[in-house]
Design goal:
heterodimer, A: two-stranded antiparallel ribbon, 74% helix, globular, B: mainly alpha, Helix Hairpins
């Protein structure tokens, strides 16, 4: 029973907040969410040591799924720490908000454990609906509904694409279980239906990752939703998307056209994201376009799965989740008074008001830009090395050029928060636990950059569980 | 080949046509309700395909999937329409050309 502990903990959190909504408990919601975040993270650590198979083979708990469960649960814990601030979210809906986020985290964890196409799809939908709904949970009027409608339309279309892909894969192999597909598919890999099916399926996941050309929702949803909601949407679904992309790409490694298409999309995604980010004045829109370019980097790992690309993509997804949570932790601190986005000027004088936050933001942005000795540099290096080994030299060149473009706009934000002076910005002093969390996160980003091997080896052993 | 027999390829062709029509509808329609209807058309193309494969492969799991997809699509539309109603209260219409407060 212990092998389902992480899922049970998240389900318990969701149930708790559901009944809390009916005013059955007296416990303060913000304390409870912190408690459940810590519980989920510790449950995922315990869960690492127990494996098993459930639901007639449709749900498998192994090294691969537990690696991603660990990432999602820790990201959920950091998100829960940020949720205790809740500046832009509608205060009367706090319990609903926590219910939906726990439910979405549960769906994401279930999706990485599923080894059957239909349960994978259902789990993804369980995670999507709460995110559509929480996008509207913002104080004030107007923008958030527009963002949510855009989110749901893009989401529904990509769901339909993914299902169409599933129907082709099912038609070709006659089964929805990945084990059966892996055994019946190899002779039929030359069939164009296989390529079409897997590419459509990946398109649906590309939407979760905000990769080109499925990224159009990202800037509007990031800036229209409350900052706390964006924190969640920016980090957690990307981990699951990476996991499922690796699972599917590994299953269809024999098709020539798939790595080629992914490499083109990866380069387009990096370039489009970076070029659009250059002109942004809003912090959340800038982070949205930077997310698009990072989605491109994660895709680079998929074109060289066997050459260490899978480990590199897993490493980069975990590092990216951490970096984006760190950046959004500061964004939440800076938010609360703007109709749509947070202007970057708001960060002026952050160095004076809250040095800990300023240092963490600097490290997070340096890591996003890929400057050594941060984790983002190590991640980009591993990804580009794997692409080089697989013979995609032009992707490496595009990646390096894009890293240089990225440095420009990240440094602009760093300059604003470290150098420029601002007097009336009035950051409320952050509570002790938030400062402690930001010190730990900043230290992790540096340590993973200097000693990346621990996490990389973990990712490697997780990927080997998938290969077997 | 006898022209009166319906083969798997006929179903695939019809499904591709339906899916294409749905995609076209999503891209050109300006009314959000009609966009949701087009998405339903795409979902039904998927369902047709699954039922056809299920029949010709004599495997029932495809038809079970269709039931799941119906339930999920209904849920998706329920959430979507709820959000659309909330938006309608602000804008007084559901024309997507008005959803341009956020740009860039």
């Amino acid at each position: 029973m212990l092998s389902l502990l992480p899922e049970t903990t998240l389900a318990a959190a969701a149930l708790f907040f559901f009944f809390k909504n009916l005013e059955l408990f007296k416990l303060e919601s913000k304390k409870a969410v912190l408690l459940f975040g810590l519980a989920a993270a510790s449950a995922s650590v315990i869960g690492l040591f127990f494996h098993g198979e459930f639901f007639n083979g449709a749900y498998r708990v192994d090294n691969f799924s537990r690696f991603f469960t660990l990432l999602i649960s820790f990201a959920y814990m950091i998100a829960c720490i940020i949720f205790t601030r809740l500046k832009e979210c509608d205060q009367s809906r706090v319990d609903e908000f926590f219910f939906f986020t726990s439910m979405a985290a549960l769906g994401l964890v279930m999706a990485v454990g599923s080894v059957e196409l239909m349960s994978m799809f259902i789990a993804l939908e369980v995670s999507s609906y709460p995110m559509y709904i929480i996008t509207t949970f913002r104080k004030g009027l107007g923008r958030q509904f527009e963002a949510s409608v855009k989110y749901i339309i893009f989401g529904a279309v990509s769901t339909a694409l993914m299902l169409y892909g599933i129907s082709y894969i099912y038609g070709l192999s006659g089964s929805t279980f990945l084990v059966d597909i892996a055994s019946t598919l190899p002779p039929k890999l030359g069939n164009p239906m296989a390529a079409l099916g897997v590419l459509l399926f990946m398109g649906g996941l590309g939407y979760k990752l905000a990769a080109f050309p499925f990224h159009f929702w990202a800037p509007d949803v990031y800036s229209g939703a409350a900052s706390e909601v964006t924190t969640f949407i920016a980090a957690l679904p990307k981990i699951t998307a990476t996991a499922l992309l690796i699972r599917i790409a590994h299953l269809f490694t024999g098709i020539e056209i798939v790595p080629l298409t992914i490499s083109v999309l990866a380069v387009l995604s990096m370039t489009a994201g970076n070029l659009m980010a250059l002109g942004q004045t809003g912090l959340k829109r800038l982070l949205a376009y930077s997310a698009v370019s990072h989605a491109g980097f994660i895709l680079v790992g998929l074109i060289a799965l066997g050459n260490g690309g899978a480990q590199a993509a897993m490493f980069y997804a975990s590092v990216y989740a951490l970096m984006s949570l760190a950046a959004f932790m500061v964004a939440v601190e800076a938010s609360g008074r703007d109709p749509v986005d947070i202007p970057i000027e708001r960060l002026k004088g952050l160095w004076r008001k809250s040095p800990v936050m300023a240092v963490m933001l600097t490290i997070a942005l340096a890591s996003l830009a890929g400057l050594p000795p941060t984790a983002g540099f190590a991640g980009k290096l591993f990804l580009l090395i794997s692409a080089w080994k697989a013979g995609f030299e032009w992707v490496v060149i595009a990646g390096v050029i894009n890293t240089f473009i990225g440095i420009y706009y990240y440094l602009k934000v760093i300059k604003t928060c470290l150098v420029s002076d601002g007097r009336e910005n009035g950051f409320a002093p952050a509570p002790f636990y938030l400062k402690a969390a930001s010190v730990v996160m900043a230290a992790t980003m540096i340590l993973l950059g200097i000693f990346p091997n621990t996490l990389l080896d973990m990712a490697g052993s997780a990927f080997r569980a998938l290969v077997m | 080949m006898d022209i009166t027999t319906v083969t798997l390829n006929h179903y695939i062709a019809l499904s591709v046509l339906l899916f294409g029509l749905g995609t076209l509808g999503v891209l050109v329609r300006r009314n959000t309700l009609l966009i949701f209807m087009s998405i339903e058309l795409m979902m039904n193309a998927v369902n047709l395909m699954l039922v056809a494969f299920s029949h010709y492969k004599a495997d029932l799991s495809g038809q079970v999937m269709v039931l799941f997809i119906y339930a999920v699509a209904a849920g998706e539309v329920a959430v979507g329409l709820a959000i659309l109603i909330a938006l309608f209260r602000h804008l007084k219409n559901v024309d997507i050309n008005n959803f341009n407060i956020m740009k860039g």
